[in-house]
Amino acid sequence: MQTVVYQGTFDPFTQGHLAVVKSARQLFDRVVVLLLVNPGKKPLFSVQERQDMIKKTLELAQIDGVSVDHSDGLLADYMQKHGLSVCVRGIRNGRDCEFELENHRLSRHFFAGLQTVFLPCDPQLADISSSAVKAACGYGKLPKTWVPQNVADELKKKYPNLKFI
User: What would the pLDDT profile of 71-89 be if each residue is shown by its tens digit?
Assistant: First the structure.
């Protein structure tokens, strides 16, 4: 049984993230959505809130074979600890490709056996990122197609004046 890890901070989980999970699930028997704690980022949601949102999103989307975990260490350490060697990354554009290739090369210094599968995103989702979602929320407007409904509900709690367009 082939398991792949899809790692990120997922703050918040977007429709783009969900699309990567769906694509990865088509290719692999099992997907682990791994929340990595990045000490350089100040998250909007706690690790537990993000885990809960992702689990709820997967449940509502009726996607089986996917679990959610978290780690505050290196991806390479998590992979080795769990006997895994393949991770998946979504690519929206050339900048993502450069960034993800660099991360792949850096991670291989810590775990030479690591392999990364790059999945191109749906062009309709190419402009969506967690950063863009948070920026839009800060301005009080968010396209309703950017995040799953349960995530939108949680964003509304953080941004009470948020309007969905």
Answer: 999 999 999 999 999 999 9
| 70 belongs to a structural domain | yes
Tokens 């989702």 correspond to what residue? Answer: 125
What is the spatial distance between Cα 71 and Cα 47, in angstroms, rounded to a whole number?
A: 10
Task: Locate the DSSP E strands across the chain.
Answer: 3-8, 30-36, 66-71, 86-91, 115-120, 141-142, 163-164
Task: Say if 73 falls within a structural domain.
Answer: yes
Write out the residue range of the structural domain in which residue 117 sits: 3-124
pLDDT of residue 38: 83
What are the pLDDT digits (tens) for 129-161?
Answer: 999 999 999 999 999 999 999 999 999 999 999
Q: How far apart are CA 108 and CA 1, in angstroms?
A: 23
Q: Are strands 86-91 and 115-120 parallel, antiparallel or unpaired?
A: parallel
Look up the pTM and report it: 0.94
**Three-class SS string for 101-146?**
HHHHHHHHHHCCCCEEEEEECCHHHCCCCHHHHHHHHHCCEECCCC
On whether residue 47 sits in a domain, the answer given is: yes
Average pLDDT over residues 106-115: 95
Total domain count, the chain: 1
Q: What is the CATH number of the domain that holds 40?
A: 3.40.50.620
